[in-house]
């Protein structure tokens, strides 16, 4: 069920006030559900993947459209966020949009130390080792180069995210 307003009625030509980027397995039924409800209760129109994408729609296209049509973004960076190539692709798209428009991007470091993101250590390092190992298995040199370039964009996006003032939520009961 689509709950978004018409883009034309938005004062800044955005369909959504906020786009939520998160790894569903980590936070969908906990922190992100609470955040989503709180934002909605404040009257904000929020893009969250399973509310805004109908069955049968092209997920990648709809996510990209949601990112472009949002006035701001909240990235909930959880412990396994960087293991998801989907999440990392979203993050790169968010930064591409942000670089063109300077909209608000708020990182939430959910049980993740921002310095681990900045240094790309700990679980972030493990995730990139996994991606790099998988990409190195590609036999086609041109495809492997494309994948390794993608890896560089992911690293850059995470570094940029870590450089923003965000909300570190480690060691806080119930987030």
Overview of the structural elements:
The protein is an alpha/beta fold and 175 residues long. It has a domain at 7-113 and 164-168: 3-Layer(aba) Sandwich (Rossmann fold), CATH 3.40.50. The chain has helices at residues 24-41, 49-52, 59-68, 85-101, 114-119, 123-136, 141-162; strands spanning 18-22, 46-47, 72-77, 104-109, 167-168. The protein has a 5-stranded parallel β-sheet, sandwiched between helices. β1 (18-22), α1 and β2 form a beta-alpha-beta unit. α3 packs parallel to α4, α4 packs across α7 and α6 packs antiparallel against α7 (141-162). The two termini are 28 Å apart. Mean pLDDT is 84; it is low at 1-11.
Short description:
This protein is of the alpha/beta class and 175 residues long. It is built from seven helices and five strands. It starts with 17 loop residues before the first strand and ends in a 7-residue tail after the last strand.
Keywords:
175 residues, alpha/beta, Rossmann fold, five-stranded parallel sheet, 7 helices, globular, disordered N terminus
Reconstruct the topology from this structure.
Blueprint: E1 18-22, H1 24-41, E2 46-47, H2 49-52, H3 59-68, E3 72-77, H4 85-101, E4 104-109, H5 114-119, H6 123-136, H7 141-162, E5 167-168
Parallel strand pairs: 1-2, 1-3, 3-4, 4-5
Helix pairs in contact: 3-4, 4-7, 6-7
